[in-house]
Amino acid sequence: MRTLLVHIEDCDDLPSILSAALVVAGDFGSHIEGLYVPQGLPSMLPLSPEGGLATADVMASLEQGAEDTVERLRDIFERFMADHDVQLMPMGAAIDKPSASWFDGKKPAQDTLGGRGRAFDAIIVGRPVSGQFAPSMVALETALFESGRPLLIIPPGGSETIGKRIAIAWNGSTETARTIAFAMPLLARADEVNIISVEEGMVPGPGGQDIAKSLVRGGIVARTRHIRCEGRAIGEAMIAESQAFGADLMIKGAYTQSRLRQMIFGGATSHILANANLPIFMAN
Predict the structure, then answer these.
(1) What is the set of domains in the chain, with CATH numbers?
(2) Would residue 14 be called left, alpha or beta, if left means φ above 0 and alpha means ψ between -120 and 50 degrees?
(3) Is residue 123 within 8 Å of residue 152, measured between CB atoms?
């Protein structure tokens, strides 16, 4: 986890997201790159209040507003790093302590976040909150499906520790197996790991005991817990069991079912993304 890309959004939880990035960077001596990806101006001129097309002056005002937002968020990012004694320098510098830089991207989010993220060990994003414009679910899914890299998703309010006690939401799937592989640097530093499986949420694959044996072979302290839903949603049961364990990080594979099916019928991933109050390490 030596390189971290932080998706910067204009939201109240931005300090919590930056603080979480510093927690991880402090453990691994990581470089943190801040990236703000504007949504872009409309491809057609918007209507003016009088019903006609907006003038060039209006479009120029929109462009200036977008540039002002970039500069304001860059200033917040750089001031935050300076206040926490994190030196601003290029990512390629070979040092063993946290450092930071700002990426001057000009393209819209869908063209930048996924592609830029491929150069990093992990991408840090805020967890979307119902009824709020940011953090953005579109940005989260862009990073998840287009970068090929894992995400560290920070809940509202952040977390003082990340990765001391890790819960693995194991369901037997390829997605979760791949996420565990990405998470090995975090797992190797954990004090304890709890592999949680929910009877009703399992797909054909190894059981939690098999994963535990593999981790223990690597020197990781791991135990297992197999439960039933007992009237709860699968995601709800996973969150409750993680909280009971005192986890400060959940490792979870992304959508085992299709995203469309999860949107219509619900699913563990959708429930966790909407409700988890601890950081989630996720990959697809």
Answers:
(1) 3-41+57-154 (3.40.50.620), 165-283 (3.40.50.620)
(2) alpha
(3) yes
- Total number of residues shown for the chain: 284
Strand order in the sheet with 122-126: 87-88, 99-103, 31-35, 3-7, 122-126, 151-154, 280-283, 249-253, 165-169, 192-198, 222-227
pLDDT of residue 111: 56
The whole-angstrom separation of Cα 284 and Cα 269 is: 11
**Residue that wins the pLDDT comparison between 59 and 184:** 184
Distance CA 168, CA 180 (A): 8
**DSSP secondary structure string, 128-178?**
P-TT-SSS-HHHHHHHHHHS-S-EEEEPTT--S-SSSEEEEE--S-HHHHH
Q: Using CA atoms, how far apart are residues 158 and 274, in angstroms rounded to an integer?
A: 15
Chain centre distance of CA 258 = 20
- HSE-up (13 A, CA, CB side) for residue 240: 13
The confidence score (pLDDT) of residue 43 equals 45
Q: Is pTM beyond 0.85 here?
A: yes
What pLDDT shows up at residue 105? 64
Indicate the helix (H) or strand (E) that contains 281.
strand 280-283
3-state SS of the chain: helix, strand, coil percent to 5? 40, 20, 40
